[in-house]
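explain this chain.
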Amino acid sequence: MLDIATFLREISKKGILPSILIIAPAFNEEETIIESANSLLNLDYVNE
């Protein structure tokens, strides 16, 4: 698994930087992780 720094370094080399990056820590979240992920996926972010 890539750590965040490695991931960002690799995509920046390719010129692919996301408009927004969300880091959602999840430890012992098995009861709520699906709801949390769906909430993040349903965000409406306007890229201006």
Remarks:
- Helices lie at 4-13, 33-41.
- The mean pLDDT is 80.
